[in-house]
Design a protein that fits this description.
Elements lengths: L7 H28 L6 H12 L6 H19 L3 H26 L2 E2 L12 E2 L2 H28 L5 H13 L3
Antiparallel strand pairs: 1-2
Length: about 180
Amino acid sequence: MAASDDKSYLTTIAIVFAVSITLIAISLRFLARKLHKIPLGADDYFMVVGATFYISYQLYGSAITAIKISILLFYRRIFSTGQLRKWINVVGVFVLAWLLADNLVFAFQCTPVRKAWEIEIPGHCINPLRTIQVVQAFNVVLDAVILALPVSGVLRLQMSTSRKISVMAMFLLGGL
């Protein structure tokens, strides 16, 4: 491959961009809390944990889980109704179950387990692409459920329909 064909710098640019956006978003979150004299909550700390682990592929599941738990804790803080809190807790259990399943699947993807890093030894491994597709399909479903959770709470708010739509749009924007 010619030196001019090397596009690895594009990966570096993408990583720097993603990490920068993450750091800016978290910094703005903390600044807003400080300016409004709102104490940091568990959701804030889980967001930092998620951002910290996000930098390592091996810890991807933990990072995604920390971010999802952060969002659920945020929902618990702003929605005080009993029924919605129960659903938030149920979804939280599914998020933790997803993390456990993700870790178990990837830890035991090969028989014997050490074949995952010593490919020359006899044994077999499950199809990694298919495994990732299945695990991430559940991840996407959880994301959709988490995005849908606040809808019932917003619909019960005493405000105009246009404001309710605006508030729901802000929650959906967070899904990006």
